[in-house]
Amino acid sequence: MTARRGQWVQIHSILLKAGERAPSAPSDTANVPLELRVRGFLQDEVASIGQVVRIRTAAGRTLEGTLEIIEPRHVHDFGDYIPELSQAGDELTAWLAGGDENEYEL
Amino acid sequence: MSMSYESVMSRKTEIMRASIGIEYDKYELEGIGFDYEGLMSDTVYHMEEITAIQRETGVGNTPLVELKNITRLVREISEPGKGARIFLKDEAANPSGSFKDRRASISVARAKELGYRGVIAATSGNYGAAVASQAMKRGLKCIVIQECYDSTGTGQPEILEKARACEAYGAEVAQLTVGPELFYYFLILLEETGYFNASLYTPFAIAGIESLGFEIAQQSRRVIGKDPDFVLATHAGGGNLTGTARGLIKAGADKTGVIGVSVDLSGLHMASDRDFNRKSFTTGHTGFGIPFAVFPDRSDVPRNAARPLRYMDRYLLVKQGEVFYVTEMLARLEGLQRGPAGNTSLTAAIALAKELPKDSTIVVQETEYTGAGKAPSAQLTFARKNGVKVIRGDPLTDDVPGKVIAIPENPSQIMYTELGLDRLRESYIRELIKRQILPSERDLDYLAQELRLTTDETARLIKEVSR
User: Fold this and answer.
1) Residues within 8 A of B (CB atoms), A 2-41 only
2) Which InterPro entries does this entry report, sorted A to Z (chain B) (predicted)?
3) A25 and B274: CB-CB below 8 Å?
4) What is the pLDDT of residues B51-84, one digit of tens each?
C-alpha cells in the first residue's frame, strides 16, 4: 500500500530504547522501548508502509517516523454482548417495572 | 541538545518556568513547605471571573438531578428509616462531556491572556478533550500527549476514544506506550513549541473546579433547601476533590463532608507494560488516588495546587465490577447513560446512603459522557480479551484487580471499603522521608495544614513514622 502527499497517516517512532528508560520504570516496561505514534498529513510525495517519512501534524509540527497506517480508522467500539451485564440490567428494569408490588425480587 | 531521559529531566525547571507564567519560587517557605494559599490567591481569578470565563465557552451551570429511583431502591434494601437522597451533578452536560472543561477553560483562557500560541496537556483522560475543545474556542493550537498503548501496540479503548475526541476538535494527539516517561515527552514538546503548560495541577486548573463546588452549594439550597450533608468526588490526581471542596467553602457550605472515592486497583502497577491493559479504569483509581494524596508534588508543575488531604473527610474505595453494575443501574433506573469512570463516586454514594437517615442528602459531583470505548460493554470485552474473568458475584470477595471483575448479584452487594486518613497521613510523611525531604520543627505549621492535624499531632506523627 502506498500513500501520497497530503494523505492522513500514522507514523511510529522509538523515543527511548530499552535500557534508556526512566530509572523508575518497572522491569517489564524497562525491557521494551518507549514508542510514539502520531497522525498527520504525509509530506513525502509517495511512500509505502514501513518507510521513514515526514508528516505535518494538526498542530503544525513536522515529524519523522516510520509509516505505520494510511488513513487510520478509529477501531474502538462498544464491544461484545456481555450476558452478565445485560442480565443485571434486566433485573433492575424488572424491579422498576414491578413498582410497588415488587414482583421481581432483587 | 541532548534528548536522553536524564538530560531532558535536568532542564525541567527552566522549561516549566517558561511554560506556565507563574514564579513558583516566590511561594517557597524556608524548609519543605510553600505558601499554598498565597499561590492560589495571587494567581487565580475570583469566583465571578471564573464563572464569567466559563460562561463564554458554555462551561458549567450543569443540572443537579435527583436520582429518585435509585434512592427508592436503596431504601428498599436498607434498614427502616435509612436511605439518603442521592443527587447527581450532571457534568456530562459540559461542552466536551465532563467536568474537565471547567479546569481547561481557566487554563486556556490564561494561556490566551499571556499570549501563548498553543497549549499542551499530558493526559490520557477526559481532560485532553476538554483542553482541545477550549483551545479551539479560543483559537489556540493544542497538543495532547497520551499514555495509550502497551508494547504490543494494543490501545486501551477508553484512551483511544479520547484520542478520537481530541482529533475531532482539531488537536494533535501524541500517543506513547506505557511508562513513567509521559512527563519526559511533555517537557520535550513544551521546549520545542514554547506552548503553555495546561497542566491539571496549576492553580488555574484547580480554580476552574471551584465553580463546581460553588454551584453544588447554590443548587442544593434551591432544590433541597439546605447544603448537602456529603459531596462525593471521584478521586485520582486530587484536583477534582480539592477544587470542589474549595468551591463549597467559598459558598459557605463548610459543614458539608467531602468524601473522595477511587476504584480499588491494588496489586496492579501503573507503569507496568503487562498490567496496563488489565485494568478497566484509566483514572479515578487507587493507582493515582493514593500516590497523589500522599505526595501531591509528583505532578507536572513545581507545586501541585491539588492537595486532597487538606480537604478530604473520608476516603472510600469501590470495586470495578460495582462501578459497571452502577453504570448499568444509572441507565436502567434513571435513564442516564454516563461514565463509567464518573460513576465511581455514585457507587460509593449508594453504599453510603444505606447507612444514612432518610432526610440526609448526598451529592455525587460528576458524570462524564459515554460512548464507544467507554461503555461498560467495551471495557468488559477488552478485559476478557486480556485474560480478565468477568462473572456475577460478590465484589467484596470475588473481585481481584487484573484477574476477576465481579458484577454484583444484587444491589445489597454494593459496598465500600474505607481507607483511613491516618494511614494516608503516615504515608505522606514516609514519602517525604523517602525523598530525603526531612521534616523539622519549622515545617510543623505547613505539615499540619497539609494533613489537617494540630501541630502537636503532626509532631507526634513525624516521630512515630521516623522511628
Assistant:
1) 15-16, 20-22, 24-26, 28-29, 32-40
2) AKP_thiolase_beta, Cys_Synth/Cystath_Beta-Synth, TrpB-like_PALP, TrpB-like_PALP_sf
3) no
4) 999 999 999 999 999 999 999 999 999 999 999 9
- Mean pLDDT on B17-24: 90
Q: How many domains does the structure of chain B reveal?
A: 3
> Which of A79, A84, A106 lies nearest to residue B382, judging by beta carbons?
A79
Q: Which of B148, B181, B197 is the last residue of a domain?
A: B197
| In a shared domain, residues B113 and B149 | yes
Contacts of A83 in chain B (CB under 8 A): none
Convert the pLDDT of each residue in A17-69 to its tens digit. Answer: 999 999 999 999 999 999 999 999 999 999 999 999 999 999 999 999 999 99
- Residues B320, B321, B324, B330, CA torsion sign: negative
- What sign does the dihedral B180-B183-B186-B192 (CA atoms) show? negative
User: Are residues B246 and B188 part of one domain?
Assistant: no
**CATH code, domain with B108:** 3.40.50.1100
Q: Pick from B141, B180, B376: which is nearest to A22 by CB?
A: B180
What cell was used for A2?
Answer: 502506498
- Nearest Cα neighbor of B296 from B34, B118, B18 is B34
Is residue B303 domain-resident?
yes
Instruction: Report the chain B residue with the minimal C-alpha distance to residue A24.
Output: B180
Co-location of B368 and B440 in the same domain: no
Please check whether residues B269 and B343 belong to one and the same domain. Answer: yes
Are B159 and B89 within one domain? no
In chain A, whose CA is at the least distance from the CA of B331? A89
Backbone φ and ψ of B298, nearest 5°: -85, 5
- Using a CB-CB distance cutoff of 8 angstroms, which residues of chain A are in contact with residue B69? 96
Verify that B117 and B251 share a domain, yes or no.
no
Q: Are the Cβ atoms of A16 and B5 closer than 8 angstroms?
A: yes
Domain that holds residue B154: 5-47+98-197
CB pair distance less than 8 Å for A74 and B160: yes
Q: Do B180 and A25 touch (CB under 8 A)?
A: yes
In a domain, B424, yes or no: no
Q: Which residues in chain B touch residue A81, judged by CB atoms under 8 angstroms apart?
A: 377
Using a 10 angstrom Cβ sphere, with 0-12 exposed, 13-18 middle and 19 or more buried, the burial of residue B79 is: exposed
Q: Spell out the residues 6+ positions from residue B14 whose beta carbon is closer than 8 angstroms to its own.
A: none
pTM of the model: 0.94
Tell me how close the Cα of A1 comes to any Cα of chain B, in angstroms.
20
Residues from chain B contacting residue A35 (CB–CB below 8 Å):
149, 151, 153, 176-177
Taking contacts as CB-CB distances below 8 angstroms, the residues of chain A near B161 are 74, 76
Q: Radius of gyration (Cα) for chain A, nearest Å? A: 24
With 0-12 CB in 10 A as exposed, 13-18 as middle and 19+ as buried, what is B41? exposed
Q: Which of B169, B197, B225 is the last residue of a domain?
A: B197
CB B197 within 8 A of CB B330: no
Pair B231, B328 in one domain = yes
Same domain membership, residue B231 and residue B163: no
Q: Give me the domains of chain A, ranges plus CATH numbers.
A: 2-74 (2.30.30.760)
